[in-house]
């Protein structure tokens, strides 16, 4: 599943540059994750880097609306990887 940034976000700017898929950007009030680009770092790292660098516990959580299997995350990574190379 894609990840979601909750209202606990303090806009510290730590997560956005760490995202290898460029899925994080500033929203109207807090940072947001584009679920179409989020692979939970599958294809890049073993754990999501945004969660690792976030200073506030439980601010970046699995998005309950966008449920994806590990296989689906891999497929999304492969499609993005190839389309970004074109």
Automatic annotation (TrEMBL):
<dbReference type="InterPro" id="IPR017896">
    <property type="entry name" value="4Fe4S_Fe-S-bd"/>
</dbReference>
<keyword id="KW-0411">Iron-sulfur</keyword>
<keyword id="KW-0677">Repeat</keyword>
<feature type="domain" description="4Fe-4S ferredoxin-type">
    <location>
        <begin position="1"/>
        <end position="29"/>
    </location>
</feature>
<dbReference type="GO" id="GO:0051539">
    <property type="term" value="F:4 iron, 4 sulfur cluster binding"/>
</dbReference>
<keyword id="KW-0249">Electron transport</keyword>
<dbReference type="Pfam" id="PF12838">
    <property type="entry name" value="Fer4_7"/>
</dbReference>
<protein>
    <submittedName>
        <fullName>4Fe-4S dicluster protein</fullName>
    </submittedName>
</protein>
<keyword id="KW-0408">Iron</keyword>
<dbReference type="InterPro" id="IPR047927">
    <property type="entry name" value="YfhL-like"/>
</dbReference>
<keyword id="KW-0813">Transport</keyword>
<keyword id="KW-0479">Metal-binding</keyword>
<keyword id="KW-0004">4Fe-4S</keyword>
<dbReference type="InterPro" id="IPR050157">
    <property type="entry name" value="PSI_iron-sulfur_center"/>
</dbReference>
<dbReference type="GO" id="GO:0046872">
    <property type="term" value="F:metal ion binding"/>
</dbReference>
<dbReference type="InterPro" id="IPR017900">
    <property type="entry name" value="4Fe4S_Fe_S_CS"/>
</dbReference>
<dbReference type="GO" id="GO:0005737">
    <property type="term" value="C:cytoplasm"/>
</dbReference>
């Amino acid at each position: 599943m894609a990840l979601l940034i909750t209202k606990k976000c303090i806009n510290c700017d730590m997560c956005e540059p760490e995202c290898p898929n460029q899925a994080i950007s500033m929203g109207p009030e807090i940072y947001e994750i584009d679920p179409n680009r989020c692979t939970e770092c599958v294809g890049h790292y073993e754990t999501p880097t945004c969660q690792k660098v976030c200073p506030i516990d439980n601010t970046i959580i699995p998005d309950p609306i966008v449920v994806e299997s590990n296989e689906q995350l891999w497929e999304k990574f492969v499609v993005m990887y190839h389309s970004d190379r074109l």
